[in-house]
Recover the amino acids of this structure.
């Protein structure tokens, strides 16, 4: 028996006037996913963000994978640090470090968060920038590590929790004055922001980006602190050998912490230009190679939501359906092997707000040869109409893996 979970990060949304009162999920052409719903699949909603937790991809994906955040969550950045191979001490504090685009006002606090991803900067470019910051500002206390695209990591030796920060994707287009750090390391973070800005604004990478008409990666932004994570092995928890397919460090870190296999896919980018077909092929290969369960994470819908790009969000949903859901389904039908599929987002990232929501998300759960429910299609409205509801991700995961 094989289990395939396809997670379109941030795929759920709110009705949009631009779409005639429909959501991107309703408008997108997704025949394979809709067929799961209309051919015996259970369509419903699941609450992935527990009360008292912010609607981050960290807590949401832990929840969907079956790890209750209240028990297992220690912060976002330490999960990413695990993926980067950083050997954290128990006393270390990990902090996410974005390279961002800020406006050019002389007064730092008067600047605007223009772009939390610096135009989805390449890993090669941003790596050079982070290394420059480490060379100039890194010391025994503060150590900067390059990650993927705009996503990087700061490790604070013998770090103390308690600095209040705001994710940069929550403040796109806003003045940063009200969102500057407060608490334990507020002064140190502000010093790092200002000094990094002086280093980055005239860096050769940014001079080249200006010449190419791209957004400058002219500052860093720190958020998402946490201590070293400890997850129970997925095999011990659920009795299945599991594999993870994702372009982003967060999901890879969760998988490593849970002793799952991490499958690398050439051309996986974490945005609309990712290798969708490669992820579908990797899912099949992972299940062929001794894994019972594979978690295929696609970041593109979330990135589109954060940028307010409805066209790309619709396209990303269609590409997930065409290049991941359909080929995986077709392959296992052809082999005759028993299999089950679960398709869902981790949280909504509505176009209207361009940030995450804590609202429950729609899912479709399907098993070969078994009638689990009666639905017409897969979208938010249909999911609510069925009355099927799971109070948390762990209960949904247990139900799925017991099929």
């Amino acid at each position: 028996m094989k289990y395939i979970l396809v997670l379109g990060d941030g795929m759920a949304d709110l009705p949009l006037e631009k779409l005639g009162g429909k959501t991107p999920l309703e408008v997108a052409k997704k025949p394979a996913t809709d067929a799961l719903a209309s051919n015996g699949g259970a369509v419903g909603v699941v609450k992935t963000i527990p009360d008292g937790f912010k609607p981050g991809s960290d807590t949401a994906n832990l929840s969907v994978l079956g790890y209750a955040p209240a028990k297992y969550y220690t912060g976002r950045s330490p999960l990413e640090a695990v993926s980067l191979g950083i050997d954290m001490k128990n006393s270390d504090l990990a902090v996410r470090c974005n390279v961002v685009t800020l406006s050019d006002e002389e007064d730092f606090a008067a600047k605007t968060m223009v772009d939390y991803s610096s135009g989805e900067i390449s890993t090669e470019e941003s790596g050079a920038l982070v290394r420059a910051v480490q060379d100039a500002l890194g010391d025994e206390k503060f150590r900067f590590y390059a990650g993927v695209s705009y996503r990087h990591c700061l490790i604070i030796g013998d770090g103390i929790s308690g600095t209040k920060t705001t994710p940069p994707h929550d403040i796109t287009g806003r003045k940063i004055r009200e969102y500057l750090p407060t608490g334990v390391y507020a002064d140190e973070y502000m010093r790092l922001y200002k000094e990094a800005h002086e280093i980055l604004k005239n860096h050769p990478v940014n001079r080249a980006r200006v010449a190419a008409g791209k957004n400058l990666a002219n500052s860093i932004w720190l958020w998402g602190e946490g201590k070293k994570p400890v997850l129970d092995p997925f095999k011990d928890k659920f009795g299945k050998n599991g594999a993870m397919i994702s372009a982003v460090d967060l999901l890879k870190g969760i998988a490593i912490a849970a002793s799952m296999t991490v499958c690398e896919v050439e051309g996986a980018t974490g945005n609309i230009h990712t290798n969708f077909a490669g992820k579908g092929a990797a899912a099949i290969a992972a299940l062929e190679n001794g894994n019972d369960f594979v978690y295929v994470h696609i970041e593109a819908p979330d990135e589109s939501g954060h940028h307010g790009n409805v066209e790309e969000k619709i396209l990303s949903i269609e590409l997930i359906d065409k290049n991941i859901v359909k080929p995986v389904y077709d392959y296992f039908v052809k082999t005759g092997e028993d299999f089950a599929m679960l398709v869902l987002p981790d949280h909504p990232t509505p176009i209207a707000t361009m940030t995450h929501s804590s609202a429950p998300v729609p899912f479709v759960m399907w098993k070969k040869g078994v009638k689990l429910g009666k639905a017409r299609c897969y979208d938010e409205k249909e999911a609510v109409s069925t009355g099927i509801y799971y109070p948390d991700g762990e209960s949904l995961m247990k139900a799925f893996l017991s099929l």
Observations:
- The chain has two domains: 2-74+230-401, 85-226.
- The CA atoms of residues 126 and 188 lie 22 Å apart.
- The first helix runs from residue 24 to 27.
- The mean pLDDT is 97.
